[in-house]
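re the bet — no i am not wrong, look at it urself. input seq straight from the record:
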Amino acid sequence: MINFIQGGIAKDMRGQIRFANDFDMSSVKRFYIIKNTDLDLVRGWRAHRIEQRWFYALSGKFSVDVVKIDDWTHTSTELSVENIILDSSKNQVLHLSSGYGTAFQALEPESELLVFADYGIENAEIDDYTYPLDYFVNRKK
């Protein structure tokens, strides 16, 4: 399942606070921040059979390609790929339940993407499925 948790922003003379008060983080075990070296780099494809993820653009914009994996042993190359733009000014958390693969590309210099996961790093070696960048033929270049 793909869904968005809408956040907001509060501003006054002291500055601003960005928030996502409806993001229940009780399942989160770890987080990391992605910052690509340039705008041409695409990170992907990486999929997780049991781990779910939440994504939040801290700064800038990211193009996120998402694919629902059909078969973990013989994954079809022709799966539908959905493109989502995460923009830090929109204050949205993208939630992907388990079973999805992703590829990311920064759309603005200095963009940073915050990623939350519901399993510890010790789970990574048994739940990390990678595919070449050109594996899914329906990905728009």
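see?? The mean pLDDT is 96. told u. also The domain at 2-130 is CATH 2.60.120.10 (Jelly Rolls). so pay up
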